[in-house]
Known about the structure:
Layout: E1 2-4, E2 15-20, E3 29-33, E4 58-60, H1 78-84, E5 93-96, E6 101-106, H2 110-136, E7 151-155, H3 161-174, E8 181-185, E9 190-195, H4 197-225, H5 233-245, E10 250-255, H6 257-263, H7 266-272, E11 280-286, E12 297-302, E13 304-308, H8 328-342, E14 348-358, E15 370-372, E16 378-380, H9 388-403, E17 407-412, H10 416-422, E18 426-431, H11 434-447, E19 450-453, H12 458-461, E20 471-472, H13 479-489, E21 495-500, E22 506-507, E23 517-518, H14 523-535
Parallel strand pairs: 2-9, 3-6, 7-9, 12-14, 12-17, 13-14, 16-20, 17-21, 18-19
Antiparallel strand pairs: 1-8, 4-5, 5-6, 10-11, 11-14, 15-16, 18-21, 22-23
Helix pairs in contact: 2-3, 3-4, 4-8, 4-14, 7-9, 8-14, 11-14
Amino acid sequence: MTATAVPAVPTALLSVRVVERDAESRADVIPLRNGAAPAVPGRAETDAAGTDPDPIGPDPIGPDPIGPDPIGPDPIGPDAVAHLGATGKVGEVFALADGRWLLGIGDGEPVDLRGAGAALARALTARAEAVVSSATAGTDQPAVAPAVPTDLAIDVAGWPAADCCALVTGLLLGSHRFRVSLRAIPDQPTVRLLTTGTELAELTSSVATATELARATALARDLASMPSDVKTPTWLVETAAALAAEVPGLSSEIWSVERLAEQGFGGILAVGGGSARPPALLRLDWAPVGDRTDERHLVLIGKGVTFDTGGISIKPAAGMHLMRTDMSGGAAVIAAILAVARLALPMRVTALVPAAENHVSGSAYRPGDIVRHYDGTTTEVGNTDAEGRMVLADAIGYAVRELAPDLIVDVATLTGAMKVALGMRTGGMFASDDALASLVLEAGDRVGERWWRMPLLDHVAEDVRSDIADVRQTPKGPGGISAALFLRHFTKGLTWAHLDIAGPARCEKPYAEVGEGATGFAARTLVELVRVCTAR
């Protein structure tokens, strides 16, 4: 159990191990499908009367997650399920008095299993925190140890690997907590997946991959959740570089504000000019040694605005505190390339994160300014709160000129228009190439992140041109589309996709494996995109 004011990044997650089932194995979690009797893998046979000889009782997770409520000798049969009111709906979790758990898994589809895993992890955390709070009430001392499971077993023998991976994703992400507090945080438990010897090797490999994908999402959440009094542009790029240094084969490079000025990154300098905290640029490179199954070079670019007041075009006070997550695109890109390198995927990948704080001061950039970007393009500023596209334009221009990539994918919390169009659970995807669009959609579908392709309309593109500069920062027309078309100008015809995550990057109420606050959305899609490319 730990207590800290500012959590270390990455924060600790529940751990998962795949182990071979033996005659002594006992499953601690009983899955319950919609309208079905619970499966009890690893349990002794029931007696002739159809009842289990071990009398236990349920303890529904709810307002009082501590005390048991015994119901008699039939703990897992239809009578017990009826007494609990369990239906098998995803998210139902009941703690039984003997330490086992009844878990609703819906129809058992991957989306259901992600939600079920997350619900179980949250129930474990809720119980642990309740015990800690009870033990520390009226004292200055943390509890010695919470009276909750530290080791749980789930029998998954015979499950498809994809289903196991979905459950693991939910367990890991449901266990994620980002808290800036001196309150004690219970240690994370271990979950053992029980399987047969013939399935052990394949499932271990699949679960290791699923774990890396979940870790990417969790790290992106950590970075986006960090409060901006800590998370300066320098903190962001240096933290990412430090994490990269721990991964063999991954290299980093950081541009200081002086170097940005020397090399002409006008968009980043304009956005960061109003803050006392200088902007920076991060580059991370993964160049696998040996044969590559995809010889293309993919560049990932993520918006790294560590706090966004809107600048002189200042935002309303309501909701401004959420702007600590305005670098969620950069967080997703950082987390994704770390996972790509840890998985040693055979494709060259570069990540660029232009980092700046968009603030208000006498040195802030103004509507009406003309900004010259890295590639020489000039932009007429119309609204200083459209800062994301300004920093992305510099990074895209750098990628095109210096890296000559085959594919560019940028990710950003770019426009409120995407929230209006698609809501809070779906990302907007723009692409100059149908094949790349299909790959992004496939990758998102495989990892449970939903994307919707949006159009790049020619008649809106005409309004990107400026009379006084090369392009207008805020062209007329639908906001999400016009922003994407502005960025497309800097790609110089290279194959490119733009992912607008303004909606799903944040969550007000947890659902499935998605937690409240920063969601880490897009991180898994980016990793899976590389996996899809290298598998073809």
